[in-house]
Amino acid sequence: MTAPIRVLLVDDHAVVREGYRRLLEATPGIRVVAEAGNGGDAYARYMEDSPDVVVMDITLPGISGFEALRRILGRQPAARVLMFSMHEDPVFVLRALDGGARGYLTKASAPDMMVEAVRSIAAGGRFVPPELARKLQDRALSEERLRLDSLSEREFEVLRLLAAGHGLTEIARLLCVSSKTVANYQTSIRQKLGCDNAMQVLRIALTCGLADGCPVSTGAGMEIPGSDATREKLPRHPG
């Protein structure tokens, strides 16, 4: 018989905890083993009970859910935490995920989504509701498009040709400039886009649709995510 998923609920409102305890425990295979009303107690209960999943609010008395997350992961990097909050702004979602949370759910979500999230995270996955995932994608795309706006017309053309699979020599021929000039443009593009390497530049180009999701040459054996979120093996391109 499979052991139940053991959950720690963290929220400063007892009524909220009671509601979600009933929801989760009405689901076969899930059991709430502990509760906490603040971040300090959440950390202590995690250390004491070692739950499989922590469901934790961000806004708590004393230290926030973010700080409690940091402390828990500091002691147990493999901890599986689902951040649960009234905040729907992508900045909160990104901060939670960047901080090591395995998922994010808003209190406006349907109750059955909580069950789905707990099961997914307990199984080693990650969980973000579709509507929040779309907001994150739109935010990332908007930020990258703003960075593209900083490029000069010639830099933008060089980036477009790189994304289309042309090598530096071929771009130099097409633009009637030297290969060194193209290399200088490439360096300037990286700096303006805040990228450390060509892979990051090309990812932005693909995300913004400069190559319509087609494979882009970046060297032998390298990979880059396409616009459809798949990863395609890229051929070596001469030049």
What does this structure look like?
- The protein is of the alpha/beta class.
- The chain has helices at residues 14-25, 39-49, 65-75, 90-98, 111-122, 130-148, 153-163, 168-175, 179-193, 198-207; strands at 5-10, 30-36, 53-57, 81-85, 103-106, 223-225, 231-233.
- The chain has a 5-stranded parallel beta sheet, with helices on both faces. A two-stranded antiparallel sheet has the order 6-7.
The proportion of strand residues reads: 5-15%
Strand pairing plus helix content: what structural class?
A: alpha/beta
Number of helices: 10
Query: What form results from the Cα inertia axes?
Result: elongated
Element string (H = helix, E = strand) = EHEHEHEHEHHHHHHEE
Q: How far is it from the N-terminal to the C-terminal residue, by CA? A: 60 Å
Main sheet summary: 5 strands, parallel
Q: What radius of gyration results from the CA coordinates?
A: 23 Å
Question: pLDDT below 50 for ≥5 consecutive residues: which ranges?
Answer: 212-239
Number of strands: 7
What would a concise description of this structure say?
The protein contains 10 helices and 7 strands.
Short key terms for the protein model shown above:
alpha/beta; 239 residues; elongated; disordered C terminus; two-stranded antiparallel sheet; 10 helices; five-stranded parallel beta sheet; 49% helix; 7 strands; single chain
